[in-house]
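Slide 14.
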Amino acid sequence: MTFCDLNERDVKEEPCLSAIDLPEGVPRLRSFYLYLSSSCNLRCRHCWITPEYSDGVPIPGKTIDLKALHQAVLEGKKIGLVDAKLTGGEPMLHPEFKEIVEMLTSEGITMNMETNGTLLTEEMAQFLKNHSKVGFVSMSLDSPFPSEHDAFRGVNGAHKATLRGLDAMVAAGYKNCQVIMSVHRGNRHQIKELIDLASNHGAATVKLNPVTKTGRGIQMHEKGEALSFEEYLALAEDVNQNIRVSSPIPVILSMPLALTPFNELWRTRGKTCDCGVIGILGILGTGEIALCGIGETIPELVYGYLGKDSIRDIWINNPVIKGLRKDIEDTATYPGVCGSCIHAKACRTGCVANNYQYGGRLVSPQWLCDHAYNKGVFPVSRLRR
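Slide 15: predicted structure.
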C-alpha cells in the first residue's frame, strides 16, 4: 500500500451538528482509516507499512475485532464519524470482511476501499455494489506487462487477478474505480501503456504514486530504483504537458501546491494533498488506535487500543493529537520553507506521516518542497514577500 490516497468522491451525508458532543475547539472525528488486516497476500517491494505475507490465510492477532470495532463506531458517531476507509495490508483478507462492511453500512457509515484487487470476485463486487455503502474502490496495477507487475508484487498471477477484480467491479456497476500505479525507474516509461490498459478495463482514473522512502521503499531508494528529486519533477512536467493531454481518462499525480503550475491549480480548483488528518483516526489490524498506518512502525504515534481505550477520550485528550491540531492550525509557526509559503493555509504541509518519516516531525516541509528550496529551485512567486 501507499500513503493516503485522495480522490474526488461524492460529498458525504453529514450528521446534524447539534448532535455532535464535543468540547468547544475540538474538531469532529470524521473518518476511521481501518487497516482491517495487518497482513497481505502479496509481497510488494515498496510497501510503506511492511505487512506480513499471508498466503490467503489471516494471521491470528493481525485483524481488527468486529465487536470492538462496532463499539468504536457507535462511540465515534457521537463525535462526528461519517466515513471509513477500508485498507490494510489487504482488507479482504479479514475473515469477517463482509460482516464488517454490513455493520458499517447498517450504522450509516459511507466507505471507500484500497485493495490490491486480487481477491475481488464477481460475487464480492455485486455484494459491495448492491448491499453496502462502499462507494469508491482503488486497486493497484504497476505495469501493463504481467511478468513485471508480478515480480514487483512478489506473487505470480497477481496482474491477472487484479484485472479480473477490476472487471468484476465495473461489471457490478462501479463507474469510478481507480487504478493506482506505484512509479519507479523500472516502470516510468510504461505509464501511457498502463493508462490505456486501465481505461480499456473500465477504470475511471489512474493515480500515479511515486515510491516513497518509507517501509520497504527505503531499500528501493537506497538501491537507486526510485525516482530522484529531479526525476519526480520531470514526471510532474510530463504529466501536465503530455500525459494528461493524450490520456483517455483523468490522471492524478499529487504534488505540493507550491510546485504545481498555476494553470493546473486552476484546473483542479486548488485541490491539495492535505489529507484532513485532524478529522481522522487510524485503527490497525492489531487493534492499535493510531495516527494512520504509520503506527505499524512508529510506536509513539499509537494512541491506545481498540476495546480498551475510549475513542472519545483519545480524540479529545491525547497529547499527540492535541499537539498536531495546534501545530497545523498555527501556520505562522510552520518550519522551513512552509513558514514563508503562500499556500501554507491550504496545504497544511501535506501528508504528516510522510513528513514524519522524512524529517522527524509531523508538521514540517514535504520532502519535495524542502529539496526544491535547498536546491534554489523553489518558485519565488510562491513565497510571501
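Speaker note: The radius of gyration is 20 Å.
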